[in-house]
Amino acid sequence: MPGIELCRNVAVPGSMLIIGTSGLIGSCLYEALKGDHQVTGTFFSCPQKGLIKLDMTERNQVRQLMEELVPGVVFIPAAMPNVEACEENPGLCYQVNVEGVGYVLEAAAGVGAKIVYFSTDYVFDGAAGPYGEDEPPNPISVYGRAKYAVERRVQQSRSPWLIIRTTVVYGPEQQGKNFVLGLIRRVKQGAVVKVPRDQVGTPTYAPNLCRVVKELVELGEEGIYHVAGPDLLDRYQFALEAAQIFDLDQNLIVPVTTAELGQKAPRPLAAGLKVDKVRARVTTPLTGVREGLREMKRALQQ
Ligand SMILES: NC(=O)c1ccc[n+]([C@@H]2O[C@H](COP(=O)([O-])OP(=O)(O)OC[C@H]3O[C@@H](n4cnc5c(N)ncnc54)[C@H](OP(=O)(O)O)[C@@H]3O)[C@@H](O)[C@H]2O)c1
Questions:
Q1: Residue 43, ligand 1, Cβ within 6 A
Q2: Which of 39, 139, 227, 265 has the most CB within a 10 Å radius?
Q3: Tens-digit pLDDT profile for residues 48-96
């Protein structure tokens, strides 16, 4: 009966699905949302209690999950976000970051769910950051081009959509991959860590990012929002701030240029994101670098 078919596909307000809950941003989102919303999360290769396994490059798996849950909002932090790995394997990068996410967009539109897609300041070329929402993207890496390709697909979706661009995200994380956790681990092992002094950005504390995103979603916002920390600094300065808060030996942190690092993927150097638009919309204050690092230290000690 047409009536029954219609009911089945009505998105339930408040029911939320996070694709990629086992990652840094996904896990913080889950924490931010779970008290007030009914949330389901997925993992891909790192099983975690309570999460459902999903490979978003498998179109049928994605469609089945979406039709089973019929969420009102689908958050998509899931990605292959390793910029070097994307440059080395553009085929896999495209399969995960563009095709896989494309299946999620298609299935979300099929059940009328709102899409919240996580993107990056790597959609810009880094010639003149920090960037506002209205400035034209011009990605310079395989990863950046994949993220921008998806942004354009999201904007053509039949579903309501919100694109969150963020950058240099740090915080407590089970998989320990982010810049600050990597720095702490390596310096504590006595390794010399070379850090670029010419990559400028706006580091973003993950739990703060997710509280802001929650507020935007609850306000029913759509469109593109830049959500990042308020402080503009280069990666070496950021590493020194982290060293101070986490009592690391600063002598082991060595400033270099990006060219000296010999990385495969070109990096946007003058990057970072302007946050005037989000500040004007939400009441949650944006967390600065020192405050974020201190909060992270407290969270890791618990
Ligand atoms: N971290 C940053 O500094 C930063 C900056 C700007 C933008 N972003 C964007 O923010 C998003 C989240 O970043 P993040 O740092 O949270 O990444 P992350 O920690 O690497 O998490 C990625 C998530 O995607 C999942 N995933 C990977 N392949 C998948 C697949 N084939 N099917 C389904 N799920 C899959 C992972 O699952 P498993 O771990 O279980 O394999 C994980 O849950 C990304 O889109 C990234 O582009 C991040």
A1: yes
A2: 227
A3: 999 999 999 999 999 999 999 999 999 999 999 999 999 999 999 999 9
Asked if 149 contacts 120 with a C-beta cutoff of 8 angstroms, the reply is no
Both structure tokens of 54 = 């999903």
Distance 177 CA to ligand 1 centre (A): 11
**Residue 47 to residue 61: CA distance in whole angstroms:** 17
State residue 49's pLDDT score: 94
Q: Could you tell me the distance, in angstroms and rounded to a whole number, from the CA of residue 8 to the centre of ligand 1?
A: 30
CA dist., res. 122 & res. 148, Å (int): 9
Positive or negative, the Cα torsion across 237, 263, 224, 222? negative
**pLDDT (0 to 100) of residue 261:** 96
Where do the domains of the chain lie, and which CATH numbers do they carry? Answer: 14-175+201-232+273-289 (3.40.50.720)
C-alpha distances (whole Å) from 194 to each of 123, 167, 257 are: 25, 20, 9
Q: CB burial class (10 A; 0-12, 13-18, 19+) of residue 220? A: exposed
Give every residue of the chain whose pLDDT is below 70, as ranges: 1-14
99 vs 9, 62, 94, 104, CA distance in Å?
24, 12, 6, 9
Q: Which residue, by CA, sits nearest to atom 36 of ligand 1? A: 20
Q: DSSP code of 273?
A: B
Give 81 Cα–ligand 1 centroid separation in angstroms: 6
Cβ(41) – ligand 1 distance below 6 Å: no
Q: Is 23 in the pocket of ligand 1 (CB under 6 A)?
A: yes
Q: Give residue 78 CA to ligand 1 midpoint distance, Å.
A: 4
